[in-house]
Amino acid sequence: MLKIGVFGAGHLGRIHIQQWKEVPGIELTGFYDPDDTKAAAVAEEFGVERYTEIDKLIEATEALDIVSTTITHYEIAKKCLLAGKHIFIEKPLAQSLDEAQQLVQLVKEANVKCQVGHVERYNPAYLALEEHELQPMFIEAHRLAQFNPRGTDVSVILDLMIHDIDIVMHLVKSPVRRISASGVSVVSESADIANARIEFDNGCVANLTSSRISIKKMRKMRLFQRDAYIGIDFLEKKTEVIRLKAEGMEKGMFDFPIEVPGGEQKTISIQMPEIQQLNSIRMELEEFSKAVLEDKPVRVSVYDGYQAMDVAHQILKKMSLHNELHNV
Description:
alpha/beta, Rossmann fold, Dihydrodipicolinate Reductase, domain 2, 2 domains, nine-stranded mixed β-sheet, 9 helices, 34% helix
């Protein structure tokens, strides 16, 4: 039985507490949140003990789930790691790149499991592509959300785009060569709409657009590679793969012939990979607990979290330079 403690009882923290109560092999020891009203409500609703001291919760557990505000991530994670505890930490990994870098080193020194909460890695639409060979040369992503005051303490890059940055870095696996970006603040103090173009050493280009003041929600990514077009709808949980049919390839949902220059007949195959019905947050928490209990690698490592933050901060710098140049 793994003893788990949770830091943060806000919107996401509450969801994590609810999910932890249903994960097999877990004893939810308690949670910490400095807000008395919020903490009292969560303690009563879920029947979980509320701790009023950070160190006491760390002492009482073997692994900690850090779902508190981003600004607190570093100090809480540092305390946990120095105590030799395993940690699950929500994205973004830390408030600053320097803090994130220090956490990477602390995890290494503590020799513990650390997973970062980039939950889109567990989206059923993305998981449906695990058996497909993905080598994209152009990626286009749109992540649009309706305005919500929660999360506006950071720019739309660290709030929304970082999900797509993590997916892109996971897919491309090549050093970043060049980044260009622009963005504007509309209703908050930081950028609410942004676009970034990331060029990689292997020739791949990713074009990412994020907005948190849209009328309609959208979370789509399109991958273009030599032999296929892949569409991923993270919101609707749908995936499609369109490719030129090769000999021996299974029949797709739709196959139709085309005539290419020279008169040769080829077949375009449209495949709709099976989508598993699952709870992404539940799955990432279960995988983290199994990684601890069975000494397995985590799906999203602390370095993955740092890498996403590194690219995000490069985008923020480019965006700032662009705005200064154009007096935005």
